[in-house]
Amino acid sequence: MRKITRRHWIAGATASVAVPAFMSSLVLAAGPTIKMPDLYADNGTLSKTALDLKGKEVTFQGFMAPPLKPDSKFFVLTTEPMAVCPFCAAIEEWPEDIVVIYTKRVIDELPFDLRIQTSGKLDLGEWIDPATGFVSKVRLLEAEYRGVPTVTQGGPRTFQF
Fold first, then answer.
1. Distances (CA, A) of 75 to 17, 19, 28, 115, 125
2. Of 2.40.50.870, 2.40.50.140, 3.40.50.2000, 2.40.440.10, which CATH number belongs to 6-157?
3. Can you tell me whether residue 32 is helix, strand or coil?
4. Which of 39, 50, 100, 134 sees the fewest Cβ atoms within 10 Å?
5. How far is CA 123 from the centre of its chain?
6. By C-alpha distance, which of 32, 38, 52 is closest to 119?
7. Is the distance from CB of 93 to CB of 69 less than 8 angstroms?
8. Could you tell me where the DSSP H helices lie in the chain?
């Protein structure tokens, strides 16, 4: 019988933490991962890629902008971290690449600089939310989200929600 050394134990413990975190990040990706700029053609209209994916499950990565109100079932996904609510900023500061994310449950506000991955059904076209009056052109419906595993100087750091 082979003796388990401290080196074997550390390797096994590291693998038992790293593999589930990596696998859990794959579970959320139900459809193709697309980038927000790929949603638009050069003239500002929706791209062929976006139109082809309308109604289908897609995945985006980005950052959660601070929510408008507590107990919301939606948030805005941005390509760059935003420390303030994009709806409270001046129009000149409005981000060009955003997608409104409508979730299945009340959202848990996440740190504004945490990269997240969100998957849901792509919905396109101008729409005014009857509850908030918010106008959107691109939305994910029935979405789920989670933090994206990252690597820091101290080693792997993962976030799961």
1. 30, 29, 18, 14, 18
2. 2.40.50.870
3. coil
4. 134
5. 16
6. 32
7. no
8. 6-28, 48-53
According to DSSP, residue 3 is labeled P
Do residues 101 and 76 lie in contact, with contact meaning Cβ atoms separated by under 8 Å? yes
How much is the pTM?
Answer: 0.70
Query: What pLDDT is stored for residue 150 in this prediction?
Result: 59
Any idea which residue has 């303030």 for tokens? 84
Q: Return the domain boundaries, the chain.
A: 6-157
Burial zone of 4 (CB within 10 Å; 0-12 exposed, 13-18 middle, 19+ buried): exposed
**pLDDT tens per residue, range 19-34:** 444 444 444 556 899 9
C-alpha 74/C-alpha 81 separation (Å) is 17
